Amino acid sequence: MNLNTQTLKHFPNISFCANDRQVKDADNKIIHRNTTRFFRDDIIWDDLAVFLEENFRNSKKVNVYSIGCSDGSEPYSLASSLRANTQNPEKFFPIQASDYDSEIIKTAQEGIYPITIRERTSMRRYVGDDYTRYFENDGPDYIKPAGGLKKDVNFKVANALDETKNAKYGDNVFLCRNFWPYLSAEDKNELIKNIKEKMNENSILIIGSFDNKGIKLDRLLSVSGFKNKEYTLDDSAAISADYYTVWKKRIS
Q1: What is the spatial distance between Cα 168 and Cα 166, in angstroms, rounded to a whole number?
Q2: d(Cα 252, Cα 250) in Å, to the nearest integer?
Q3: CA gap 23, 119 in Å, rounded
Q4: Is 10 helix (H, G, I), strand (E, B) or coil?
Q5: Looking at the chain, which runs of residues are DSSP E strands?
């Protein structure tokens, strides 16, 4: 299964540059673009880290799966947020990050990223002004993981269905964000089934606001046995937070 199942079966050639993935038709017209970046703003990352720490307070080990991780920006955003905002981040590491695109995994394993002013501002917001503890400059316009952060994330090539089917049952975090609208209905249902089977009462599923805007994934999750969890602690930040990104399995 490809994350872009509905389009890639017709247009298999992906033009990839930095963190911008494009699918074009025969006339070279862009029919799909997917981007990722550090500390994507549909999550309040420091609040999420504190929420995860409290949720798994009694857990000795938490398995974190970043599915469809693209260039690694998201798992590194989570890893650095956990290190900066929690007392015992080690239980969440290493994050298991995967993507079906072998070229993007090569980029993630290399770990050198173009960086925008917006991303630097977000880093300061979520991990503090001393963000260079986690990311160091590699030239004026690039960064790379620093201070052992690179060891906090393992990257591999795998599709979402296989990765979730092979996941361990237990205290799990599934970071499955901003790709669901590109899946077929059959793959959506199978992915939800796989994730649900591997979740216990503590486990967390994290999706993206794009998933809700694109296909109302919150409705599908609700009827599939999941319940939404509010994780934002700061009322001032709640205005920009999408509460429908964090889910638990409903235990009867």
Answers
A1: 7
A2: 6
A3: 25
A4: coil
A5: 14-17, 20-24, 30-35, 63-67, 95-99, 113-114, 135-137, 142-145, 153-157, 172-176, 204-206, 226-228, 246-249
- Quickly tell me which residue has 């974190």 as its tokens: 64
pLDDT in tens, 130-182: 888 999 998 888 999 998 999 999 999 999 999 999 999 999 999 999 989 88
Examine residue 75 and say whether the peptide bond preceding it is cis (omega within 30 degrees of 0): no
Asked whether 97 and 155 are in contact (CB, 8 A), the reply is yes
Structure-block tokens of residue 237: 């930040």
Q: Is 192 helix (H, G, I), strand (E, B) or coil?
A: helix
What's the pLDDT tens digit per position in 169-201?
Answer: 999 999 999 989 889 999 999 999 999 999 999
Q: Label residues 106-130 b or e (16+ Cβ within 10 Å = b).
A: ebbeebebebeeebeebbebbbeee
